[in-house]
Each structure stands twice: as C-alpha cells, then as structure tokens.
C-alpha cells in the first residue's frame, strides 16, 4: 500500500501550503483516523440510543464496557510485545516477511481463545443469574461482547500493523470505511426494529469489513503462529506486568460502566453510556495527541534529561487543556441542546449529570500527560500503585453513592478522577527524584549509553502507533 501513501503525499503537496503540510502527514492521518473512530462511536451510539429502551441501551453499554476491558488487556499483553519485537527487527522494510506475519497468526489464535473465554464467562453468568430478571441486561451484554469484541480485536491488530509499517494514511482510509459500515448498519438496525442484538451487528459488520481491508493492505503470509508464540513467551514477564496495570485502569476508567450498572441499575448504566458517548470525542483527541507525543517525550528525556521531559509533558498538557477543555466546556455550556440533538428526549432529564461527567472526563484527559511521564521514566510499578488507588476509590465511592442514583455515581467518578490527578502528580515527583538518584549513581558513559538504550526501547514501544 505504499503507492496509496505516495498518492496521499502528492495530493497534500498539490494543496496550497501543501509542502509545509507534507511533513505532518502521519500526524494529520493519526488525528483523522482517531476522529473517524470517535465519530463512529458517537453517531452509532446516538442512533441506537434513540431506538432502544433504557434496558436495551444499558445492554449495549455493558457490551462496550466488557469490550474496552478486553481491548485494554489485548493491547498490553499482545500488542505491546508485538511492537517491541518488530521495532527491533533490523529488516523493518520487510516487516511482514521478517516479523509481523508470525504475530498476525499468533494474534488470530489468541483472539479465538479470547472468544471462547468470553463465551464461557457469559454462559456462566447466565447460569448464575437464571431467573433474576433484573440481571439479564448484564448477561445479554456479556454475550454480545463475546461476539463483537473478538472481531474488533482483529481489526484493532490490523490497525497496529498499518501504523507499525508506516501506513498511517491507509489506516485513516480504512477507518473511513469502518465509519460508513458502522453507521449504515446502525441506521438499518433502527429501521428494522432495534434490539441490542441487532444493534450489535453494526460493530460486527464494520469490524469484519475493516479487518478484511487490513489483510488486503498487508497480507499475513503463510501460517507461522508458533514463532509468534515463542517470541511472546520470551516477553511474558513484560506482558504480565503490562496486563496487570490494565486491571485497575478498567475498573475506574474504560469499563467503569459495569460498576455504574451494578450499583445504580439499568437507568444509571443507560444514562452513563449516553453521557460517555457525548464526552468520548475528547478521549479521541487525547489518543491522537498521545500516539505521537509519547515518543516526543522519550526523545526529550534522551536529549535534555528530566527538564526536557517536563517541558514535553507540559506542552502536551497545555494542548490537551485547549482541545479537550474547549470541547467539554461547550458540552457543559450547551448540555440541554447537545442532549436533545444527540438523543432526542430519551435522556433530557440528565442535564446536570452530563455536566458533572464532562468535568470528570476533563480530569481523565489531564491524567494522560502524568502517565506519559511515569511510562517514559519506566516507573511501571509506581503507575500500577496509582491505578490501584484510583480503582479502590472508584469502588468505594460508587458503593457509598448508590442511594443517590445517577448523580451520586457521577459525583463518585468526579471524586475518583480528582484523587487520580493528585496521586499521579505525587507519582511524578517520586519518579523524578528516583530517576535523579539513579543518574547520580551511574554517571559514567556506560550508564549514559544504557539510559539511551532504555529510552529507545520505550520509544519503540510507543512510537508510530495509535494508542
């Protein structure tokens, strides 16, 4: 697909001021690709929310919550070891022949195992809650996740291959196809009589279609999953610790809708899913910025030490304040109009809850630069501690806030992320002092070379790939 990338470059160059834009092609493609993904999530959820009952939309929210947990685990346990392996491949120009092909097949086998595991968990949940009418939306959401999540994981890994092979524009084009399929199926689902199962087809069709295009863009080659499994096993310790950090993160962030539903019931889960739909564009902005600013932060540490890292993280933080603060500020200001535009009258009574959640999501966006700081300084265990604190705060506060319904859940999440902001900034201070002591204790040339090698490893893990 290098021909398509070259065509996009020529197209950009032909535009007014195009020669200035051409060096930014990958960044623009990353923003565009994340924008398309965010638009798909927003529009499809808005369409389904209008056609589904509160219980039906809560089921979709549960499905997505389970998927986000699985997605995060898949990213930390499989995707990051894959990036580390192929980034260190000397013959990177022949990436699929030399490295990533074996990972493609290993990922396929892994996703099939994930599908079986999700199906088994859904079946067990159905048996445990048999006869409990109030819990069926949870069981149905888990069952739909067993179908939808593996398909989306295949597409997600295909996206990673494209970014790793420097095909960012191709990834953006395929995400445009994903948007069209996702949106088209959501419209069809609503017209034929929306139900959670029919609504889930929007993700099934879009995921399969987009995954097929990634295979066409980068053919996986002959089956060689055993080599991928062997390399993964060599990185199992790294994968274990990375996966461990995702568990508390999912509790208070990516899959928190599950906790909201368990403590607040169907109305809270449905309203939270609607609120998250409106605030998700801010998260897409963070993802687009983060995918390129993490490598910049790692390079800043190598070239200018701790002051350079702080400057880089500070620039990212100011950019996110401008982008996400501007968007979420508009959501807060025009919450009644935004809710009506997106969902009609279905969630018109949750205006104040939306505003509180918008503030909570702004705090989530502000957490990302601090996490970058800890990741670049390789303070993985410290990051894990901050996430465990936030997860514990989320569980405790949501349990205590249960009598106050959705507003209680929103205030609990706001408090959780305020705590997370504080403990991450404390973590930054601890990591910086620890790094300074380590540098003072290894000030010779060999120590400097080792630091550069470690920082290069960090850049390999996070460079040129959309988070």
In short:
The chain has 467 residues and is mostly helical. It has two domains: 25-234, no CATH class; 243-467, no CATH class. The protein is built from 16 helices and no strands.
Structural account:
This protein has 467 residues and is mainly alpha-helical. It contains 16 helices and no strands. Helix 3 packs across helix 11. Mean pLDDT is 83; it is low at 90-96 and 447-467.
Helix and strand composition category: mainly alpha
Query: Count of DSSP helices?
Result: 16
The total domain count is 2
Q: Choose one word for the global shape.
A: globular
Secondary structure layout plus pairing:
Elements: H1 2-14, H2 18-21, H3 25-51, H4 54-87, H5 95-128, H6 136-164, H7 168-191, H8 196-217, H9 225-234, H10 236-254, H11 256-333, H12 335-343, H13 351-376, H14 380-400, H15 405-441, H16 445-462
